[in-house]
Amino acid sequence: MPTELEELVGFIAHPSPQIRQVAIENLVPFSLSQPSIFKTESLKPIKHLKFLVRDIPKIAEHALTILINLSGDPEVLENVATDDRFLGIAFAYVTDPAEKNANLFAMLLANLSKWDGLKSLLSRKQPAAEGLGSNELVLNQLIDLFVKGADGSYNKHADFDYLAYVFADLSKHAEIRQHFLQRQEYDGVVPINKIRVFTEHASSVRRKGVASTIKNVAFDVPSHPAFLDEDQVNILPYILLPIIGGEEYSEDEMMSMLPDLQLLPPDKQRDSDPNIIQTHVETLTLLTTTRPGRDLMRDINVYPIIRETHLRVDDEGVQEACDRLVQVLMADEEDEAKAGNGEGGDAAVIEVDTDDEKMVEV
């Protein structure tokens, strides 16, 4: 016999919008405390929730919130992430400039992107919304939405910060990494160059997702020359600025650094989130995989920045990441060559932490 809560769940499909709204509003807290009540009858309540995201804004808001909270469950995640029709609805709504729940759709997509099959997004198309300036490829629309929507000028109801987590999870797939590095015909821009500018954004969600995306794309070793080239991706200033503070360096140390890092004000703050700092240091370590990468980081004096980061950030993960990078930068290439293949070429790929972003809860 169904419990009172399970009976209440049944009312979210009631014909009366007033009854639906009261029921679903009261059920939101239970999506975290008793999620099993939404998994009865072969996930029938999940089917209703997916339908309700198109209801009046307030009901849709609660339906999305519950789906976001439930998508941490593998069974629910698979059900929602493999529903092609629902995905089409979600992508259409998140790119609608008038959608009031666009941020919640972005949060739900951030959780759904943990389903490996969502990498099929690479070939998914839909008509681009007017004013977005994108092409028909949904992935490009999400990237352009992330960029143009950051200041609320595209949709006054949303900032789209959580799309950064979508990119972070999707970029764990090789084909998505390649997309982020390929110049797009419709606007002539390399996608990674669109998001790199947010490594010092006010939103920690946006910074964290972008940092993870950059790190994941950096696993593509053949792309490192483009990453380091000032006329292509030129990623180093965007990685180093968030991890450098306003500490003083000797004139000799400073003059060898990148121009963007010289003469910073004494009140310059490094990123407040140690996890983001660790991610950037791990990306630098990935970029030392090749000899040219190591040589460049020595030439632009990355070591003093890492030295000060190690001293000033009291976090075990950051300090261990700094130690690994310093070991590479301070290694003697001639000794490495003698111990290795005798050519002093590429080093072994450095192992870094690739833990998934946490599930979003509301």
Characterization of this structure:
- This protein is mainly α and 362 residues long.
- The protein has 3 domains: 1-70; 80-217, no CATH class; 222-362, no CATH class.
- Helix content is 55%, strand content 0%.
- It has 21 helices and no strands.
- The protein has helices spanning 4-10, 17-27, 30-33, 40-52, 57-70, 74-81, 84-94, 102-112, 138-148, 163-170, 174-181, 191-195, 204-217, 224-228, 236-243, 251-255, 274-286, 291-299, 302-312, 316-330, 333-339.
- N-to-C SSE string, H for helix and E for strand: HHHHHHHHHHHHHHHHHHHHH
Secondary structure class reads: mainly alpha
What coarse outline follows from CA principal-axis ratios? elongated
User: Domains counted in the coordinates: how many?
Assistant: 3
Largest sheet: none
Strand content: under 5%
* Sequence stretches where pLDDT stays below 50 over 5 or more residues: 347-352
| Radius of gyration, taken over Cα atoms and rounded to an integer in Å | 23 Å
Helix content: 40-55%
Span of the ends, CA to CA: 30 Å
Overall average residue pLDDT: 93
Number of helices: 21
Number of strands: 0
